[in-house]
Write a structure and sequence with these properties.
Length: 367
């Protein structure tokens, strides 16, 4: 593995595609339907230009910000991603160490492949727990209580998955969670021996947060019962910060604010759920207008560079989250690859700030 070969997110993806089994790569990379949602959001991000400014002293730039009043060294963090250890053994803890180093949140997925207690310990508290409401909700509230006891202070409700989206690339490979190996997968793994020896010999990746008595996870279980009363119950049950992720409608955003959530995360789930959803980047300024200038607003979906992150901040977000490109960096170069990708993203946003006359994230303009 050569982390120094990573100069952009595209490099990380290209290297990961060579090294990962087809089913694992397509699970990480894939989107709903014909993947037009991904194209739509990418087109919107690319269409925005930044306004270059000259002859401003930008020698003392800072990437620091605050998040819920707590200092963060970067204006972006780690989005919750399921089964990260598929990209490489120990990936969850690589991400946790990165979060601790830069004082940014590590979104810990409901379907993480490392126990939530271990992740928040390694992240030195810089971890948020992401929750799905599933079935009748009994298991969901058990997990919420477990997260509270583990020391999590921020809960992220992912609300845009009433039913799991159809991702044809996954379906063609027979990808399932819990992870199962059949004849098709065996051939795939045999053709990618480096990954297979490095990963499967350390044990089959598992969903580590489902060792609760009488509660097992079914990825296909309907999540459609969740409603506004569910949100009220969750608000009442959770003493810390509550973020709702997967919001694309200004009316929903206004209702969430009225119901007492602490922040909203504008997201299309990486275009993995509804192919025909609008671009989150297009909806971001509309939602900002709806909730007002001071309400905490976060963003994820389709970000591929530091310039992308800067565009979201200039368009109304207070903080951004990167997802699958971090997994690709791990697959491409292990923990060194992850740190390299993080440095690339940091350099990209810092250079873009210089080019546009920004010394701090509160400065800036676009056209």
């Amino acid at each position: 593995m050569n982390a120094n070969a990573i100069h952009s997110a595209a490099d990380a993806r290209r290297l990961a595609r060579r090294r990962l089994p087809w089913m694992v790569f397509d699970y990480i990379d894939g989107a709903a339907g014909a993947e037009n949602g991904t194209i739509r959001n990418r087109t919107a991000l690319d269409a925005m230009t930044l306004r270059p400014r000259i002859l401003r002293d930008v020698s003392g730039r800072s990437l620091a910000t605050t998040l819920f009043g707590v200092p963060a060294y970067r204006p972006f963090g780690i989005a919750p991603m399921g089964m990260c250890n598929l990209s490489a053994p120990g990936a969850d803890l690589m991400l946790a160490r990165l979060a601790a180093k830069h004082k940014v949140p590590h979104g810990v997925s409901t379907v993480a492949s490392t126990a939530m207690e271990k992740i928040i310990e390694v992240a030195q508290g810089h971890a948020w727990f992401q929750i799905y409401f599933s079935g009748d909700g009994s298991g969901t509230f058990k997990l919420i209580e477990r997260a509270r006891q583990a020391g999590y202070e921020t809960l992220v409700l992912t609300a845009d998955v009433p039913e799991v989206g159809r991702r044809p690339r996954e379906l063609r490979h027979g990808f399932k969670m819990p992870f199962k190996i059949g004849p098709k997968q065996f051939v795939d793994f045999a053709l990618h021996p480096r990954w297979s020896f490095g990963s499967l010999l350390k044990g089959k990746p598992r969903m580590a947060n489902f060792d609760l008595p009488g509660y097992s996870f079914d990825r296909t279980e309907s999540r459609a019962r969740a409603d506004w009363d569910t949100l009220v119950r969750m608000r009442d049950a959770w003493p810390g910060k509550l973020v709702v992720k997967g919001v694309l409608d200004p009316e929903d955003a206004v209702m969430l604010k009225a119901k007492g959530v602490d922040a909203i995360q504008v997201s299309s789930h990486g275009a993995r759920q509804l192919e025909s959803s609008p671009s989150p980047f297009v909806m971001l300024p509309l939602i900002r207008d709806a909730v007002g200038p001071d309400f905490p607003l976060f963003f994820d979906s389709g970000l591929r560079s530091g310039e992308d992150a800067l565009k979201t901040l200039l368009s109304g977000a207070d903080f951004a989250f990167f997802g699958r490109i971090l997994q690709f960096a791990i697959a491409a170069g292990g923990e060194a690859g992850l740190n390299r990708m993080w440095d690339v993203l940091s350099d990209e946003i810092s250079i873009a700030m210089a080019q546009t006359g920004m010394r701090t994230l509160s400065d800036g303009s676009s056209e």
